[in-house]
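Recall that a protein's primary structure is simply its ordered list of amino acids. Everything else, from secondary elements to tertiary packing, is in principle encoded there. The following example makes that idea concrete.
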Amino acid sequence: MSSKTNKPRMRSAAWRVSFLATIAFACGTLVIFVFLHQFVSSDIQRRTDAWLSGEVEVLGDVAARTPKNALYRRVVGEVAELAAREVPNKSNSADNSSDSVFFLQTSAQPQQSQLWVGAGNGKSNLEAIRRTSFQPDTPTDVSVSGFPVPFRVACLQMADGSRIYLGVSERDDLRVLRRLRLRFFLLWLLVVFLGFGIVFLVTRRMLSHVRRITEAASRIGHSDLSERVPATRRNDEVSQLAQTLNGMLDRIESAMHQLHTITDALAHDLRSPLTAIRGKLEMSLSRTENEEHTEPIVSAIEELDQLTDFLNKSLDVAEARADALRLTRTRIDLSRLMETMVDLYEPSMAERGIRIRVSSEGGVTLDGDEGLIHRMIANLLDNELKHLAPGSSVSITLQCRDEMAIVTLEDNGGGFEPEILEHLFVGRVKGRTSKGHGLGLAFVDAVAQAHGGTVEAANREGRGARISVSLPSLPKTAHHQATVATQVG
């Protein structure tokens, strides 16, 4: 059984474009920040090392010039304290200023603390310094027990064999880097969200024109071709696309108008003589009483009727294949129309010994051309009437599923010939025993497509054929939910 799948909900590409652009921008800014952070970190360490190297030289010079008497410790200690106040990036808080810098002078033999300026007694600092190898004129990181952050320490060898160590905690440098990272992260979030919003709004506005173009293109062949795509004032790619599509619509509308003109003229030029010939034959039939003469006239009238029907179907199929079939849409009660058509064909079916069973859901309605739907159902029933053998049966089911009205015809006849099964809806394709023109099912398919529906045909398992027509239906009302079953024949 055929049924039309629900149209998937369209997802705007603006979200995807904005998301991808934001990801690219965010990754790019993160890479820039990594290099910026590395540069700032290196610059802070360079400035700290330059300060340490300069201050340790000053302290070494003061220590060398100061006599080794009772005032030595006081003079050198005060100079060391003055140097500690000039530490770069030092925090202004008073509670952590005393432990951020230390000055240590060790004697030559043995290596013991001779002078200490800093927090505590300096034993942990001296032990950490003893475990560390220093390079001349190169400050080194020293991890001191009891301090979570290492010290950056510069070493100076004195002439008397003693050594001077000046160390500064990297706590303040790390604090500066943490503030930098926090501020960058907040600024990064602000810029990323702002950039996403700007890109989304611009992309959505641009794609809204594309969406209107898509909607206009989807209505080609299903509504008035006089509608045009609104063009923007900006002479950009979207505006040029709209102008190109409008030009294409102008050409399509002109081609459809020419097609309708040709088909109308052709139908008129052919129907008029056919109608005149039929009228003359009917006049001759009414004046002739000889049965030998009337039989050829009746046969000629039937052939003219078949030729007229062939002409109408050929033109309708041609227009439908060109998506130019003109529809006069009205509200159609498909359940009632189906019952009317079955009542109309029931005598002919009963005369041939064909049974019909109809199962219909009440209140199945659709918006379509009633004349074309009537002819479509007539073609389906004609197809069953012409090709089923006496004693066969036809089951017709009408139901509504997923906003689709589904008409299914199943019979227990011989089914479709395998070689034409895949080409049933192609014009002038028919079976070996068929006496028609091969336009019946092609017309059914053309009408279904013109109404936005589909047709499927297949052989049943075992014996017989199945034809299923799906057409977009209107919402069912509450008082039409009953199921009606009828059997005739």
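The first helix runs from residue 13 to 65. The chain has three domains: 14-177, 237-321, 329-488.
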